[in-house]
Amino acid sequence: MTERKFNIGERVRAKWPGSGLYFEGEIEDFNDIEYLVKFDDEDESKLAVKYRDVAALTSFKRSRSRSRGRSPTRVPKSPNKKTSKSPGRVQAAKRSPGRPRASSKSPARISKTEITMLNSTANSSESNKSPSRASSRRIVNSSASSSFSQNSRSSNEEKTRVTSLRQSPRLSSDEKSNDVKNLSAKPSSSSGSKTRRWASIKRALATVWDVLLPALTSLPLIIFIALAPLTMSYACTKKNCTVLEVPTFSSQVKQYYDIRAVAITLGLLVLHLVLSYIPVRSRVLPNGAKARTNGLVLLLVSCLLFPLAHYFKLNVSEVYTLLRPLIVSHAALGLVFGLALYIKSFYAPRSNRNPRIVGHFLPDFIEGREVNPRIGSIDIKSFFIKHSIIVSSLLLLVLVIREFQLTTKANYNNEFFVLAALQLFYCLDFLLFEENFYSTWEYTRQGSGYFLTGFYLTMPYYFIVNTRVLMMFRSPLPWYCIAGIVVIYLAGYILVRGANNQKHAFRTNPSDPNLAHLESLPTSAGTRLLVSGWWGVVRHPNYLGDLLVQLSLCLLCGFKHGLPWLNLFLSFASLLHRIYETERTCSLKYGLSWSTYTGRVKYKLLPKVF
Ligand code: NDP
């Protein structure tokens, strides 16, 4: 089996499907067997090319044959560059029996209209065509489609048909002869050497850029993920929780390290790992993988720690005093697991490799080289997100217990309890609908690297920022304000839950009678896109719902403290990034169907605004 040699963005020469000719282009994406190559023709055709038919630009220069003998794989320097081939030879190639006439056609002459994405209806009509007509077409596997995606790698239905590899009738005989002339004229040697020098300078610069840019962008992200929650905790002083002052870090070791914090961190992780091995609520996912939707069971068992601690006369609210050492131990664990997953990925099955890896340590360490790593029967990605949600819930309960202990009934901090209840509800909701996680972008496409381990393990400490703010600084609100905020929360919750449920149900069973009222678009990938219901309001209704929920949690804290709002801003930035990421992938995967969808549902996040 040919190994993959190139990464996204690399310049290569690739064999134009159906011909023996190689042309320059750029790697746009890849899956297990093919690259998606964007050719340098005027239409920037994107075609799937097998690994073995893609070569480095340099390898051609070295191996260019001087032989005058005709060879079907003889390579012109580029579609429009001049070669020493005689016109006769090009035409002879066209004449060779059994070879599609247009196979020698340069990419520059294949127009966009000739590359059509056909949906299932079109596929069936195609099958009725005469064999000779059908054979004059080339079928290229999933050029801009889901063979480049994770969850539908196995889907054979997705085909992009590149039509008219026969000569286009538009092409006059004059044009043909011009083209042949172009191919046959020889470049002057001085311009050739200049071009080569320029190309090697560009290659050297690209290599430096390739190494430096990922390092420059990845390092700050690693530092940010590791330090942000601790910095946030120091940003909360007795005066306020601000983002306007540089926090002063303590120099005392006990602020960062406490054996009890390490024991709690490791204890909870081991408990959840052990419980995950118990075959409770095992199910087979739509992609064939096995998973355990056992989050609620893990939470219930973890909650037994509270009565257990009470029995042993341990005061659980003291966990609050260990917050900083807990943050440090979770951040350190995130780094350790990030490294472990990075090393593990080298032994991962090829089918599970992340197509977005770039081949450099730092970016691949962050992004993750594997998409859905497993340890035995445990799916690591879903394990980490469940663990994170459960730790968040336990921390919230610790804060609630502490608040009960410190205040009297007459003096209850109502806003705090409302906030804690809404946050706990959001955690429970995730665990209750855990199955939906397996049809999200995060599960099906995001790599499992340090971003996942580092962020998920420290997420509980971002999550409780608002609760801590209200615990430290009361922010009394009239009841109607609290009621209004709860309404915003519920609107957001209904949106996020409704949209996620609708998509999950539709993805699991598109012919579900409960969804019969929804309109959908067929795609070349065999799946369908919802264009009505929640997914007809905006293209990311679940993100909008998520943002409304988070907005309501900030509003409860008032406007005096900047930290909760910084959290909201970070969430917004991450969702914005996700919007562009998912849309890029979907447009590659679904092509024409995605454009139809975006034409019909015009707004990404907020109707009439964005
Ligand atoms: P999504 O649940 O938004 O999934 C995106 C995928 O949904 C697409 O890749 C596509 O999958 C499918 N899809 C898109 N449009 C349609 C349509 N019209 N009809 C049918 N399917 C469609 O993935 P995420 O992982 O980004 O989000 C999951 C949850 O996590 C959300 O609730 C989100 O709010 C939350 N989240 C929160 C963040 C935060 O910072 N607070 C950050 C990121 C996520 P396919 O290719 O399989 O067709």
Automatic annotation (TrEMBL):
InterPro entries: ERG24_DHCR-like (IPR001171), Lamin-B_rcpt_of_tudor (IPR019023). It is a multi-pass membrane protein. It comes from the Eukaryota. The keyword Cell wall biogenesis/degradation does not apply. Keywords: DNA-binding, Membrane, Nucleus, Phosphoprotein, Receptor, Transmembrane, Transmembrane helix. The chain crosses the membrane at residues 204-228, 259-280, 292-310, 322-343, 383-404, 416-435, 447-465, 477-496. Residues 1-54 form the Lamin-B receptor of TUDOR domain. One of its GO terms (biological process) is cholesterol biosynthetic process. Residues 132-154, 184-193 have a biased composition (Low complexity). GO terms for cellular component: endoplasmic reticulum membrane; nuclear inner membrane. It holds the Pfam family LBR_tudor. Residues 60-193 are annotated as: Disordered. Belongs to the ERG4/ERG24 family. PANTHER family: DELTA(14)-STEROL REDUCTASE, DELTA(14)-STEROL REDUCTASE LBR. This is Delta(14)-sterol reductase TM7SF2. The gene is LOC108668053.
